[in-house]
uroporphyrinogen-III C-methyltransferase
Amino acid sequence: MTDRFPLPPGDWPVMQPGWVWLCGAGPGDPGLMTLNALNALNQADVIVYDALVDPRILDWARGDALQIYAGKRGGKPSAVQKDISLRLVDLARDGNRVLRLKGGDPFVFGRGGEEAQTLVQHGVPIRILPGISAGIGGLAYSGIPVTHRDINQTVAFVTGHDQSGETPQSVDWHALARAAQVIVIYMGVKHIGRISAELIAGGRDPADPVAVVTDATTPRQKVLETRLDRVEADIAASDLEPPAIICVGRAVLMRQVLDWQGMAAGAPPRNTDPLGRGRAAEEK
Ligand code: SAH
Protein backbone atom coordinates (compact mmCIF):
# COMPACT_ATOMS: atom_id res chain seq x y z
CA MET A 1 0.00 0.00 0.00
CA THR A 2 1.29 3.46 -0.80
CA ASP A 3 1.59 5.84 2.11
CA ARG A 4 -1.14 8.39 2.39
CA PHE A 5 1.45 10.97 3.32
CA PRO A 6 4.89 10.23 1.90
CA LEU A 7 7.74 10.87 4.32
CA PRO A 8 11.14 12.25 3.40
CA PRO A 9 13.60 9.54 2.39
CA GLY A 10 14.79 7.64 5.43
CA ASP A 11 14.92 4.33 7.19
CA TRP A 12 11.40 4.55 8.65
CA PRO A 13 10.42 1.70 10.96
CA VAL A 14 7.88 -0.74 9.57
CA MET A 15 4.94 -1.69 11.77
CA GLN A 16 4.52 -5.44 12.09
CA PRO A 17 1.22 -7.20 12.84
CA GLY A 18 0.86 -7.92 16.54
CA TRP A 19 2.86 -4.90 17.64
CA VAL A 20 1.70 -1.89 19.62
CA TRP A 21 3.37 1.46 19.09
CA LEU A 22 2.82 3.93 21.92
CA CYS A 23 3.10 7.31 20.40
CA GLY A 24 2.89 10.93 21.49
CA ALA A 25 0.76 13.17 19.26
CA GLY A 26 2.02 16.45 20.76
CA PRO A 27 -0.07 19.02 22.61
CA GLY A 28 -2.51 19.95 19.83
CA ASP A 29 -1.17 21.69 16.74
CA PRO A 30 -0.82 18.81 14.26
CA GLY A 31 2.44 20.36 13.07
CA LEU A 32 3.95 19.41 16.42
CA MET A 33 3.54 15.73 15.74
CA THR A 34 6.71 13.85 14.89
CA LEU A 35 7.53 12.23 11.57
CA ASN A 36 7.59 8.93 13.45
CA ALA A 37 3.98 9.52 14.42
CA LEU A 38 3.04 10.24 10.82
CA ASN A 39 4.85 7.09 9.75
CA ALA A 40 2.80 5.16 12.30
CA LEU A 41 -0.48 6.73 11.12
CA ASN A 42 0.35 5.68 7.58
CA GLN A 43 0.56 2.05 8.65
CA ALA A 44 -1.68 1.35 11.64
CA ASP A 45 -4.73 -0.92 11.26
CA VAL A 46 -6.15 0.27 14.57
CA ILE A 47 -5.66 3.58 16.35
CA VAL A 48 -6.58 3.84 20.02
CA TYR A 49 -6.56 7.50 20.93
CA ASP A 50 -7.08 9.78 23.92
CA ALA A 51 -9.31 12.81 24.45
CA LEU A 52 -6.35 15.14 24.12
CA VAL A 53 -5.36 13.97 20.65
CA ASP A 54 -6.36 16.70 18.22
CA PRO A 55 -9.07 15.49 15.76
CA ARG A 56 -7.14 17.00 12.85
CA ILE A 57 -4.44 14.41 13.48
CA LEU A 58 -6.90 11.52 13.27
CA ASP A 59 -7.98 12.82 9.87
CA TRP A 60 -4.54 11.80 8.66
CA ALA A 61 -5.10 8.13 9.50
CA ARG A 62 -5.66 5.61 6.75
CA GLY A 63 -9.30 5.71 5.66
CA ASP A 64 -9.78 2.03 6.49
CA ALA A 65 -8.11 2.18 9.89
CA LEU A 66 -10.31 1.44 12.88
CA GLN A 67 -10.33 4.37 15.31
CA ILE A 68 -11.13 3.63 18.94
CA TYR A 69 -11.66 6.37 21.50
CA ALA A 70 -10.20 5.65 24.92
CA GLY A 71 -10.70 9.01 26.53
CA LYS A 72 -10.15 9.69 30.17
CA ARG A 73 -11.09 13.21 31.13
CA GLY A 74 -11.90 14.48 34.61
CA GLY A 75 -15.63 14.58 35.25
CA LYS A 76 -16.62 12.75 32.06
CA PRO A 77 -17.41 9.05 31.76
CA SER A 78 -14.11 7.40 31.14
CA ALA A 79 -12.66 4.11 30.11
CA VAL A 80 -11.00 2.14 32.88
CA GLN A 81 -7.23 2.14 32.50
CA LYS A 82 -6.86 -1.61 32.88
CA ASP A 83 -9.53 -2.20 30.23
CA ILE A 84 -7.66 0.05 27.80
CA SER A 85 -4.42 -1.84 28.32
CA LEU A 86 -6.10 -5.23 27.93
CA ARG A 87 -7.93 -4.03 24.82
CA LEU A 88 -4.54 -3.17 23.34
CA VAL A 89 -3.32 -6.68 24.19
CA ASP A 90 -6.35 -8.24 22.47
CA LEU A 91 -6.04 -6.04 19.38
CA ALA A 92 -2.37 -6.98 19.05
CA ARG A 93 -3.06 -10.67 19.55
CA ASP A 94 -5.64 -10.49 16.77
CA GLY A 95 -2.76 -9.58 14.46
CA ASN A 96 -3.44 -5.88 14.15
CA ARG A 97 -0.81 -3.20 13.83
CA VAL A 98 -1.90 -1.07 16.75
CA LEU A 99 -1.13 2.58 17.26
CA ARG A 100 -1.77 3.85 20.77
CA LEU A 101 -1.88 7.60 20.29
CA LYS A 102 -1.66 9.85 23.34
CA GLY A 103 -1.62 13.60 23.82
CA GLY A 104 1.77 15.21 24.34
CA ASP A 105 4.40 12.65 25.26
CA PRO A 106 3.21 9.16 26.19
CA PHE A 107 5.52 8.94 29.20
CA VAL A 108 4.69 12.33 30.74
CA PHE A 109 1.70 12.02 33.10
CA GLY A 110 0.00 9.92 30.48
CA ARG A 111 0.10 6.41 31.97
CA GLY A 112 2.13 5.33 28.97
CA GLY A 113 4.52 3.52 31.27
CA GLU A 114 1.74 1.43 32.79
CA GLU A 115 0.26 0.55 29.41
CA ALA A 116 3.65 -0.36 27.99
CA GLN A 117 4.42 -2.52 31.03
CA THR A 118 1.11 -4.37 30.73
CA LEU A 119 1.80 -5.04 27.06
CA VAL A 120 5.26 -6.43 27.82
CA GLN A 121 3.83 -8.54 30.67
CA HIS A 122 1.44 -10.06 28.11
CA GLY A 123 4.24 -10.72 25.65
CA VAL A 124 3.19 -8.01 23.18
CA PRO A 125 6.12 -6.29 21.44
CA ILE A 126 6.18 -2.50 21.70
CA ARG A 127 7.84 0.60 20.30
CA ILE A 128 7.76 3.95 22.06
CA LEU A 129 7.58 7.16 20.02
CA PRO A 130 8.01 10.27 22.19
CA GLY A 131 6.14 13.49 21.55
CA ILE A 132 6.27 17.13 22.54
CA SER A 133 4.80 17.49 26.00
CA ALA A 134 2.28 20.24 26.73
CA GLY A 135 4.43 21.50 29.60
CA ILE A 136 7.20 22.40 27.15
CA GLY A 137 5.57 22.96 23.76
CA GLY A 138 2.41 24.48 25.18
CA LEU A 139 4.41 27.03 27.14
CA ALA A 140 6.57 27.80 24.10
CA TYR A 141 3.41 28.60 22.15
CA SER A 142 2.54 31.17 24.78
CA GLY A 143 5.98 32.76 24.72
CA ILE A 144 7.28 31.17 27.91
CA PRO A 145 10.70 29.51 27.76
CA VAL A 146 10.71 26.65 30.22
CA THR A 147 14.34 27.43 31.01
CA HIS A 148 16.19 30.70 30.65
CA ARG A 149 19.72 31.37 31.88
CA ASP A 150 18.81 34.47 33.84
CA ILE A 151 15.87 32.78 35.52
CA ASN A 152 16.21 29.11 36.26
CA GLN A 153 18.61 26.23 36.40
CA THR A 154 15.85 23.86 37.47
CA VAL A 155 12.34 23.14 36.31
CA ALA A 156 9.89 20.77 37.96
CA PHE A 157 7.04 19.05 36.16
CA VAL A 158 4.36 18.11 38.64
CA THR A 159 0.85 16.75 38.50
CA GLY A 160 -1.92 18.59 40.34
CA HIS A 161 -3.79 15.45 41.22
CA ASP A 162 -2.97 11.86 41.95
CA GLN A 163 -4.76 8.59 41.19
CA SER A 164 -7.51 9.35 43.70
CA GLY A 165 -8.11 12.77 42.13
CA GLU A 166 -6.74 14.59 45.19
CA THR A 167 -3.71 16.87 45.45
CA PRO A 168 -0.84 14.39 45.46
CA GLN A 169 0.30 13.61 49.00
CA SER A 170 3.57 12.26 47.65
CA VAL A 171 4.60 15.71 46.42
CA ASP A 172 6.52 17.75 48.99
CA TRP A 173 5.08 21.11 47.92
CA HIS A 174 7.12 23.04 50.47
CA ALA A 175 10.38 21.54 49.21
CA LEU A 176 9.27 22.16 45.63
CA ALA A 177 8.55 25.81 46.46
CA ARG A 178 12.19 26.26 47.42
CA ALA A 179 13.94 23.87 45.03
CA ALA A 180 12.35 24.48 41.65
CA GLN A 181 12.70 27.97 40.23
CA VAL A 182 10.08 27.18 37.61
CA ILE A 183 7.21 24.80 38.36
CA VAL A 184 5.06 23.43 35.55
CA ILE A 185 1.81 21.94 36.78
CA TYR A 186 -0.25 19.47 34.74
CA MET A 187 -3.87 18.78 35.71
CA GLY A 188 -3.66 21.57 38.24
CA VAL A 189 -6.81 23.65 37.80
CA LYS A 190 -9.06 21.75 40.19
CA HIS A 191 -6.68 21.96 43.13
CA ILE A 192 -4.91 25.23 42.35
CA GLY A 193 -6.15 26.79 45.59
CA ARG A 194 -4.50 24.08 47.69
CA ILE A 195 -1.39 24.02 45.54
CA SER A 196 -0.80 27.78 45.58
CA ALA A 197 -1.39 27.93 49.34
CA GLU A 198 1.12 25.10 49.90
CA LEU A 199 3.72 26.78 47.72
CA ILE A 200 3.33 30.08 49.56
CA ALA A 201 3.46 28.28 52.91
CA GLY A 202 6.66 26.68 51.66
CA GLY A 203 8.25 30.08 51.17
CA ARG A 204 7.33 30.97 47.63
CA ASP A 205 6.76 34.67 46.99
CA PRO A 206 2.98 35.30 46.84
CA ALA A 207 3.70 37.74 43.99
CA ASP A 208 5.47 35.07 41.93
CA PRO A 209 4.19 35.31 38.35
CA VAL A 210 1.88 32.56 37.12
CA ALA A 211 0.52 31.74 33.68
CA VAL A 212 -2.42 29.48 32.98
CA VAL A 213 -2.45 28.24 29.39
CA THR A 214 -5.54 26.41 28.18
CA ASP A 215 -5.87 24.47 24.92
CA ALA A 216 -2.25 25.29 24.26
CA THR A 217 -1.08 25.20 20.63
CA THR A 218 -4.65 24.95 19.30
CA PRO A 219 -6.64 27.77 17.71
CA ARG A 220 -8.52 28.00 21.04
CA GLN A 221 -5.39 28.69 23.10
CA LYS A 222 -5.91 31.19 25.92
CA VAL A 223 -3.40 32.55 28.41
CA LEU A 224 -4.14 34.07 31.80
CA GLU A 225 -1.30 35.92 33.50
CA THR A 226 -1.61 36.36 37.23
CA ARG A 227 0.35 35.81 40.46
CA LEU A 228 0.52 32.99 42.94
CA ASP A 229 -1.75 34.52 45.57
CA ARG A 230 -4.41 35.41 43.02
CA VAL A 231 -4.36 32.47 40.63
CA GLU A 232 -7.27 30.60 42.21
CA ALA A 233 -9.57 33.65 42.23
CA ASP A 234 -8.52 34.71 38.74
CA ILE A 235 -9.21 31.27 37.28
CA ALA A 236 -12.59 31.20 39.05
CA ALA A 237 -13.46 34.61 37.60
CA SER A 238 -12.39 33.59 34.10
CA ASP A 239 -14.06 31.42 31.50
CA LEU A 240 -11.01 29.17 31.26
CA GLU A 241 -11.59 25.45 30.91
CA PRO A 242 -9.10 22.59 31.16
CA PRO A 243 -6.91 21.25 29.72
CA ALA A 244 -4.54 23.73 31.24
CA ILE A 245 -0.85 23.98 31.92
CA ILE A 246 0.03 26.20 34.86
CA CYS A 247 3.49 27.72 35.01
CA VAL A 248 4.79 29.26 38.24
CA GLY A 249 7.95 31.34 38.22
CA ARG A 250 9.72 34.25 36.59
CA ALA A 251 9.81 32.48 33.22
CA VAL A 252 6.26 33.81 32.87
CA LEU A 253 7.67 37.36 32.65
CA MET A 254 9.40 36.49 29.40
CA ARG A 255 6.02 36.39 27.75
CA GLN A 256 6.12 40.19 27.82
CA VAL A 257 8.81 40.04 25.14
CA LEU A 258 8.27 36.59 23.61
CA ASP A 259 4.51 36.42 23.02
CA TRP A 260 5.21 35.62 19.39
CA GLN A 261 1.60 34.83 18.55
CA GLY A 262 0.48 38.21 19.87
CA MET A 263 3.27 39.91 17.95
CA ALA A 264 2.38 38.01 14.78
CA ALA A 265 -1.15 39.34 15.20
CA GLY A 266 0.20 42.89 15.31
CA ALA A 267 0.63 43.63 19.04
CA PRO A 268 3.95 45.25 19.92
CA PRO A 269 6.09 43.57 22.58
CA ARG A 270 4.93 44.78 25.99
CA ASN A 271 8.40 45.06 27.47
CA THR A 272 11.62 44.13 25.71
CA ASP A 273 13.50 43.83 29.03
CA PRO A 274 11.05 42.12 31.39
CA LEU A 275 13.78 40.91 33.74
CA GLY A 276 15.07 44.46 34.11
CA ARG A 277 18.63 43.59 33.19
CA GLY A 278 19.14 47.01 31.63
CA ARG A 279 21.26 45.59 28.84
CA ALA A 280 20.92 43.55 25.68
CA ALA A 281 19.79 39.95 26.14
CA GLU A 282 23.14 38.45 25.25
CA GLU A 283 25.53 40.98 26.80
CA LYS A 284 27.38 39.77 29.87
N1 SAH B 1 1.04 13.24 28.13
C1 SAH B 1 0.56 14.61 28.13
C2 SAH B 1 -0.04 14.98 29.46
C3 SAH B 1 -1.23 14.15 29.85
S1 SAH B 1 -1.94 14.64 31.35
C4 SAH B 1 1.70 15.54 27.74
O1 SAH B 1 2.85 15.13 27.70
O2 SAH B 1 1.43 16.72 27.45
C5 SAH B 1 -3.19 15.74 30.80
C6 SAH B 1 -2.83 17.16 31.16
O3 SAH B 1 -1.85 17.66 30.28
C7 SAH B 1 -3.95 18.14 31.07
O4 SAH B 1 -4.79 18.09 32.21
C8 SAH B 1 -3.20 19.44 30.99
O5 SAH B 1 -2.67 19.80 32.25
C9 SAH B 1 -2.04 19.03 30.12
N2 SAH B 1 -2.29 19.31 28.69
C10 SAH B 1 -2.25 18.44 27.68
N3 SAH B 1 -2.50 19.04 26.50
C11 SAH B 1 -2.69 20.35 26.78
C12 SAH B 1 -2.98 21.50 26.00
N4 SAH B 1 -3.12 21.44 24.67
N5 SAH B 1 -3.11 22.69 26.63
C13 SAH B 1 -2.97 22.78 27.97
N6 SAH B 1 -2.71 21.73 28.75
C14 SAH B 1 -2.56 20.53 28.18
